[in-house]
């Protein structure tokens, strides 16, 4: 469904040149839940922005159902890490969730139903009339998820969405995402720097190298579909998988050190 082929992104400007993506290739099938994991600064956000059509790659392409992505696509929704900055503080929760629907051709009634349904899905029906700043961080991130759900995306892109919440809330949100994925049959691409989270959530884990980023390895997570925070994380197979991912990331880091990263400071030689 989603095909990323030889994707390159070079940021250039102000005398600086950063090769963020260096030829990424991978595919995601319809209805899959894939986690992308890679070291900080490796280009994960850059990649998601290219997939969402918010950023134009400098090489290669992204195809959705065979069609090249050249701009924001109606079937794709993106949930960002910084929920605090992605919600409008002067709009109530329901209004925040409804906002993107105003660009869709639908009646008011249908819009309201979608908002109510999305808020119910994330357990926030009672908070519909509140302002984002009256909610905890975890609840704010639920609002951001509801906003994406109301949009009825076929592809849900999530960029380290739980990096800023406490461990307990994070566990709840992870289970929420898996539940929504199973219920709604969306294709989910979940970016994280957290190895355990990637293995717990994904059907597959794509391990990225340091930038200029390529796909280092793809692992199938052969854990049962019904997962739970205690049992799954205690399973021997879970430990094996997380070790494999960990070793790949360590190797990626070493490789990057050998190549003289940091790219941020690297002079433009190529
Ligand atoms: P990640 O999300 O994995 O932490 P990013 O995609 O945010 O990584 O960034 C990858 C690299 O690209 C970093 O070196 C970062 O400094 C650089 N970068 C990101 N956005 C820009 C930009 N708008 N202009 C220049 N460099 C950028
Ligand atoms: Mg990022």
Average pLDDT for all residues:
89
User: Which bin fits the share of residues in helices?
Assistant: 25-40%
Oligomer: single chain
Shape: globular
Strand order of the largest sheet: 6-7-8-3-9-10
Q: Can you write the helix and strand succession as a string?
A: EEEHEEEHHHHEHEHEEHH
How many strands in all? 10
Q: β content, as a range?
A: 15-25%
What would you report as the Rg, rounded to the nearest angstrom? 19 Å
Q: How would you portray this structure in words?
A:
There is one protein chain. With about 270 residues, the protein is of the alpha/beta class. It has a domain at about 1-75 and about 155-260: Rossmann fold, CATH 3.40.50.300. About 35% of the residues lie in helices and about 25% in strands. The chain has 9 helices and 10 strands. It has helices spanning about 45-50, 85, 95-100, 110-120, 135-150, 165-185, 195-200, 230-235, 235-260, and strands at about 1-15, 15-30, 35, 60-65, 65-70, 75-80, 155-160, 185-190, 205-210, 215-220. A 6-stranded mixed sheet has the order 6-7-8-3-9-10, with helices on both faces. Strand 4 and strand 5 (about 65-70) form a beta hairpin. Helix 4 crosses helix 5 (about 135-150) and helix 7 (about 195-200) crosses helix 9. The chain is globular. The two termini are about 35 Å apart. The relative contact order is 0.18. The site of adenosine-5'-diphosphate (ADP) has 13 residues, from strand 2 and helix 1.
Question: What can be said about this structure in brief?
Answer:
The protein is built from 9 helices and 10 strands.
What keywords describe this structure?
270 residues; alpha/beta; Rossmann fold; six-stranded mixed sheet; four-stranded antiparallel sheet; 9 helices; 37% helix; disordered C terminus; binds adenosine-5'-diphosphate; binds magnesium ion
């Amino acid at each position: 469904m989603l095909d990323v082929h030889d994707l390159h992104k070079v940021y250039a400007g102000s005398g600086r040149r950063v090769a963020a993506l260096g030829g990424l290739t991978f595919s995601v099938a319809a209805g899959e839940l894939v986690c992308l994991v890679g070291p900080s600064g490796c280009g994960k956000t850059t990649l998601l922005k290219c997939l969402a059509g918010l950023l134009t790659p400098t090489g290669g392409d992204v195809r959705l159902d065979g069609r090249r992505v050249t701009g924001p696509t109606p079937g794709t929704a993106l949930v960002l890490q910084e929920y605090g900055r992605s919600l409008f503080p002067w709009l109530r929760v329901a209004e925040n969730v409804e906002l993107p629907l105003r660009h869709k051709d639908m009646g008011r009634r249908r819009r309201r139903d979608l908002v109510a349904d999305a808020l119910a899905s994330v357990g926030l029906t009672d908070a519909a009339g509140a302002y984002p700043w009256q909610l905890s961080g975890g609840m704010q991130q639920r609002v951001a998820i509801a906003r994406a759900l109301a949009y009825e995306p076929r592809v849900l892109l999530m960029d380290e969405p739980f990096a800023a919440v406490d461990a307990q809330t994070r566990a709840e949100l992870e289970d929420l995402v898996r539940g929504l994925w199973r219920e709604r049959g969306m294709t989910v691409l979940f970016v994280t720097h957290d190895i355990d989270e990637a293995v717990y959530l994904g059907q597959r884990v794509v391990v990225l190298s340091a930038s200029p980023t390529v796909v280092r390895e793809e692992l199938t997570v052969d854990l049962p579909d019904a997962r739970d925070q205690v049992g799954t994380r205690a399973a021997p197979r879970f430990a094996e998988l997380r070790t494999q991912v960990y070793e790949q990331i360590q190797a990626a880091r070493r490789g990057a050190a050998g190549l003289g990263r940091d790219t941020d400071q690297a002079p433009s030689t190529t």
